[in-house]
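New to this. Help decode both lines:
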Amino acid sequence: MNIGRASKESGVSAKMIRYYEQTGLIPAADRTASGYRDYSDTDVNMLRFVRRARDLGFSVAEIGDLLGLWRDETRESSEVKRLAQGHVHELERKIKDLQDMVNTLSVLIDSCRGDHRPHCPILQRLETDQEDEDLSIRRRAGAIA
């Protein structure tokens, strides 16, 4: 089947299929006599695997590892589990980091009057690295008096 049909059946855009081939994540498709890519049902199944792994947030490198394990019938499931657990830990770290960002922004939003005056604690915090800085009204360091 051509790349358009493989894209439709797998849910992976033709552009991403070409990218995955170019980077070596998936093997290059066979070619027809006229030079067009020709994908098999096995290729489409592999593309679905890649799409599902991407949907779960795995990186391209991790997907490469997963594909290697998927193809290796002598693998131990403990290897797959270890990789998935590592990914979960990374996702949990990212969730914590995002929650910290939400908390910080919420404090800043609460401290901003949002009125006609130019003072803005949100911009003030972006200007400095000090997280425990007093957010009371003060003139910006580079402001003109």
Observations:
- Residues 77-111 form the longest helix (35 residues).
- The first strand starts at residue 30 and ends at 31.
- The radius of gyration is 25 Å.
- The mean pLDDT is 89.
